[in-house]
Amino acid sequence: DEGAIHPWSHGHTKEYFGRLIGALSEALGFRTDIPWAGLPQRAKKALLYGHKIQTEVRYRNRYGRERAYTTPAFEGAVQFVKRRHTEAESDSSRERFEGYMREVPCPTCEGTRLKP
Fold it and tell me: What pairs with residue 55 in β-bridges?
């Protein structure tokens, strides 16, 4: 809930990915109101690298009507960044996603965080 995965923690993506992560947490049985360090390894792995589980996302639209959609799989933050980098149409967008990409794992977190 506190934005541990930076690419999904701001702007128009925050609400969308908040819903997806909520649905994933229900499907896999983990809480989102605890720090990243307290998450089970399977949750961290799913959030970073994706999961093949189908999730149902429920929300209320701007008119107050409940809506739902089903995702075929959860993409994961790493694949999201790679895809958005590849699909970027401008240099500034591409550079924004390059800020999350490193060839060598960070010595502090040993590659467990995704934040520039």
Answer: 71
In angstroms, the CA 9 to CA 4 distance is 7
Give yes or no for a contact between 53 and 74, defined as CB atoms under 8 angstroms apart: yes
Domains of the chain and any CATH numbers: 6-75 (1.10.8.280)
Structure tokens at 111: 């590659």
- pLDDT by position in tens, the chain (length 116): 667 788 777 777 788 888 889 889 999 999 999 999 999 999 999 999 999 988 888 888 889 999 888 988 999 999 999 998 999 999 988 888 888 887 777 777 776 666 55
Q: At what angle do helices 13-28 and 41-49 cross, to 10 degrees?
A: 140
The reported pTM is 0.75
Nearest to 8 by CA among 55, 78, 72: 78
What residue has token string 């699909």? Answer: 87
